[in-house]
Amino acid sequence: MTMQRYRVLISDATAVTMVPHDLFRQNNVELVFGHHKVSSFVKEHHAKHVVIPKEIAETLHLPQEDITIHVYASRGCLYIGPLVGIYTAGFSPVRIRPIGERTPFFARLLQTKKTVGMIPFVFGSEHIQWTDQTINGWVWEEGEWRQRIFPFPTVVYDRLPNRRSERRRKNRITKDRLQTDYGVAWYNHNFFNKWHVTELLAKDAATQRFVPDTVRLRDATTLETMLKKHKTVYVKPIHGSLGKGIFQCFYRAKSGHYDVRYQEDGGEKRLRRFSSVQGVYDLIKEERKSVAMLVQQGISLIQYEDRPLDFRVHVNKDQFGEWVISCVAIKVAGKGSATTHVKSGGEVKTIRECVPRDEQDGLLHTIQEASLTIGSVLDHHWEGLIGEVGLDIGMDTNGRVWIFEANSRPGRSIFKHPALAEDEIRTRELPFLYACYVSEQQWIATSIGSSQ
Hints:
Blueprint: E1 4-11, E2 17-19, E3 28-33, E4 36-44, E5 50-53, H1 54-60, E6 67-74, E7 77-81, E8 83-87, H2 103-110, H3 113-116, E9 119-123, E10 128-129, E11 134-141, E12 144-151, E13 155-158, H4 163-167, H5 169-182, E14 185-187, H6 194-203, E15 214-216, H7 220-230, E16 232-237, E17 247-252, E18 257-263, E19 269-274, H8 277-288, E20 293-297, E21 303-304, E22 307-317, E23 323-332, E24 347-349, H9 351-354, H10 357-381, E25 388-395, E26 401-407, H11 421-451
Parallel strand pairs: 1-5, 2-4, 3-7, 8-9, 8-13, 13-14
Antiparallel strand pairs: 1-6, 3-4, 6-7, 10-11, 11-12, 15-20, 16-17, 16-20, 17-18, 18-19, 21-22, 22-23, 22-25, 23-24, 25-26
């Protein structure tokens, strides 16, 4: 039976769990919430909601509120939830902003619980009580932040803010222990490595046509070879994000010199000229120190008002575990910028604003089909569960699609555009709809395992 949503009431007037006809299997069951379970006597009633005794709800750490969530009955168990933990770092001692400057984003994430039908909370490694297998998680209730005790969740949505926090020993240990020792499902568990993504997509027959010529930056000879071949290349950090540390390099064949466009850490845009490729290489190494870089073929992109544009596409898995397109936006490069990233002066637009009306449907279909293919290939080859991916997609002047970047935790700056308000909501709901799917698969697997 596929899990359905039910209104769940907590009552101190009964010692028996009451369920509607379609959830009733037997009188003695185990109620499961997260990784806690309690035995209960169950009776069928004619109402469409579920009633759980207050004492049992307290033992399970089930919130004492009138809620509508998913319930799944199978083989002597009644699964309630799902209970979704959002794992992150960078917590603040200030209770009105417990996650620092990212607090408003997490408040918006938690607000999706009613539309999706699940119970979410935010936590970090410091909130876990390993002895009693509980977490003192943060929730957003009635316009304020509160902490509540929860069991270990059914599934975790990883929202660590950066690679530095991902590398910290305490976070690596926490993630490994919850998954290995307690069987907690975990999705989007790491940041993508640009080089690994490029290799993976280039080797798969379904996506190799989308991948620009890309090599690792080993020395000045590598850079020179790529520049002589393509005339324009991008040099970018393998572990970078948000367009930081990207160099746009040009080889001017007639004069034999090299131009480099980039943005300094302080935000100032620079355009420099060199007489030799060694000068370009030395600049990159000086600016990026020991950072691992790759060199990627430059593409002659379609333009809007004489500025190159590309597409930010959000692809998510839904409640059926299938990839869907949740948002397509356009990013137009700022003047003098090496990239279209907003932090580098790029501007967010919609397809309606930038593309002639008679071309909009065909272009959108092409971008969406390529994005779904890329998402599926990444999902097939990447280790672990992936629930969402942000893609930077380009289209050249011949109508060919190219993939520039894939991000497992895509930024959200595009959603400041008012026309993308509905997409913003959708991209918050879909990760939790996927969490419902993952939870159901967990519950089914547990039910099958317990019957063997």
